[in-house]
Amino acid sequence: MNVTDLRTSLRDRADTVTDPDPGARATQVQARIRALRRRRVTGVAALTVGTLAVVGTAGFLSAREPDGAEIAGQDPAATTITHENFVSHSGAYDLIGATMGKPGESTLEVTIPAPKGKVRIMMVCYGDLEGPDHWVSGYTGDSRPDRPDSNWCGGEPTTPVVPALTGTAPGPYSYDPGLTAQPEGDQLTVHVELTQEVDKNGNPIENPDDTGTYVPVSDPNVVLGVGIYSIAPPETTVAGAEIPSLIGLDGEDYAYREHRTSRLGERELTWEIPASDTVRHYDVVAKDSRSPGVTGAGVEAVLDGTSCRFNYGLPTFRAGGCLLDPGEPHTITVTIPEQQPPATAELGIVLYEKVRP
Questions:
Q1: Rounded to whole angstroms, how far apart are CA atoms 355 and 45?
Q2: Which parts pass through the membrane (predicted)?
Q3: Residue 281 and residue 255: Cα distance in Å, rounded?
Q4: Which of 128, 172, 214, 286 has the fewest CB atoms within 10 Å around its CB?
Q5: Domains of the chain (ranges plus CATH)?
Q6: β-pairing, 119-126 with 107-113?
Q7: Block means of pLDDT (10 residues each) for the chain, length 357 residues?
Q8: Cα–Cα distance, 153 to 127 (Å, whole number)
C-alpha cells in the first residue's frame, strides 16, 4: 500500500467512527490510529561498504556496507538468520537478509540469493531529520517507479521489527501489506532511499491530502535499514485473499484451522464458534464489499455482540480481528452496511489457534 492508498483508506475510516457507544467509538478511533502508525515505521540500518554473507551457500557476494553491519542471504532450505534489529521468525515470515548502517547514508542497496517464493521487505528509518516529512522508499530490481512503496520515518526502535501483524492484546490487530515482491532470476536486489514527496514544481508536500513524486534526498542524521523475509506458501484462499498456514502474534505462532464465507452478494456472515481450551484469533476478509461511488461506513465486525467492534473502510481487504478467550463459545458477525451490496461481494472469517510449545 502506497501513501495514496493509505490516505484514501484513512478518509474512509474517518467516516466510520459514528457508533454512539463511547467504548465502541474508542475502539474504532484506536483502529484508525493504528492504521496511521503502520506507516510511521521505526528501525535502523543503512548500507555503504562491506561484504554480503551467504548462509547455506558457498562463498560470499560483495556488497557495500558500513563497519559493524551485517547482511545475510540464504537459500530457502537453509537456516533462518538472526539480526538484533529484526525478528527472525513470525508466522509465515522467516528472515533471510538484513542490514544496518551508519547515520547519514541515505541510500541502501542489498542483493541476496533469491528465494523460490515471494518475499516481504521491511524498510525502517529514523533520525533527527530537518524540514518537511521524510520517507523511506523502496523497490526491487533495476526499474525505479515514480511512487515506490514508502513509509514515514519514525522514532528510534526499542524492540526488533516484526513483519505484518501489529497491535496489542486483545486486539483488534492490523495487517500492513508492506512491500512484497516475487523475485525473478537467481538474485534479489532491494533498493532503499531516503526521500521527500514533492509537487510538480519540486516543492515538498506538506498537506497530507496532496500527492506527488518521491525524490531521493540526503540528511546527515538519517539511519536507514531493511529486513528481507521469505513468505511461506498460502494455506488456502478466502474471499480472494491468500491465507497463510501460520500468523505471528505477540511473539507466538497461530496456526490456520478453518474458515467460513458468505454466499456472493450476501451482506452478513455470522459464525458461532464452539468453546476451546486454546487461545484463538480470527481474521476478517472481504471482497467487493462496497458499490462504486458509495462512501461512509465500511464493513463492520463484532465479537459476541458488543466486543471488538470496528469498521474497515476499504471494499476489499484482509484484516486482523481479536483474540478469543478459551473456555467459552464465541459469535463473530460481519456486516456490509449497504442493503444491496454488489453481486460479487463476499465476506470471510478465518480462525487461527495458538500453537502449543
A1: 32
A2: 41-61
A3: 9
A4: 128
A5: 38-231 (no CATH), 234-354 (2.60.120)
A6: unpaired
A7: 41 37 39 35 28 26 34 50 92 92 89 90 88 88 88 84 86 84 90 92 83 91 93 95 94 96 97 97 96 86 91 90 96 95 97 93
A8: 8
